[in-house]
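Suppose you are handed a protein chain with no further information: no name, no annotation, nothing but its sequence. What can you learn? This example shows the usual starting point.
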Amino acid sequence: MADSTIYDVIIIGGSYAGLSAAMTLGRSLKTTLVIDSGKPCNVQTPHSHNFLTQDGNTPKEISVLAKNQVAKYVTVKFQNDLAIRGKKTGYGFEIETESERFFGSKKLIFATGVSDIMPNIKGFSECWGISVIHCPYCHGYEHRNQKTGILANGDTAVHMVPLVHNLTKDLTILTSGEAEFTDEHLAKFEQYNIPIVESKIVEIDHQNGYIKNVIFQDHTKMGFDAVYTRPPFEQHSNIPTSLGCELNEQGYIVVDDFQKTTVEGIFACGDNTTYFRSVANAVYGGNVAGAKMNLELTNEMF
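A reasonable first move is to predict its three-dimensional structure. Written in structure tokens, the prediction is:
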């Protein structure tokens, strides 16, 4: 079923970045449709931190408040649905949803986020976002001075170790395989008494997502309060690439300083464009995307 309305903008993704873009566009009197399936990647995270005015609130509390504020603008509409396909049209773009609805717009914003790929470690996914965490800025203060592991190897571990060591000195590197460090890095870890465990991890023993022990293939185990890691990811939606948007070597959507993709009329913001995953950064990216898109639309109509 097709919606006869041709919106100025369709935003795919209604979390922090998408809602931020929607507020900017709504306040600029641009007709905007937000399509969101209601399945954010941080659904398990108990509390969100390092975002002014909302520090310590749950991700859902922040998003509900944000959506309620955006919904006050009459030019913004919401569709609870999953966008599955997109195509270019004479007027701009058409988006098809899982419920077989069709929506048209002059321009698109993708705030679709990414999907983390869980490793083959029993208990990992149940702990992800709770005690298996990715960001010392988002979670580090709450785990300061606790027994902490870094599940990483090579350059990723080298990057994370100083940041986490700043928060706790009870730190162990878990490479889950042969360590890949230079002699210089090994000397630095030894200098700060940071051990490296190369044994393969097979399970995370936990209670309701909170780590008790990391269990290794040789049946030994180590107790931890938290483990930092950065699992691989993939784009949550394939619509951007199907429309021609380029990805960089890391798998993020390529955007310029104003969140514009490599395809005319398409912007992207939030976790799908940057490794810096935080609420504050998502809100910033959405705000920039909305403002620049409003400028383009306004200039085209002037």
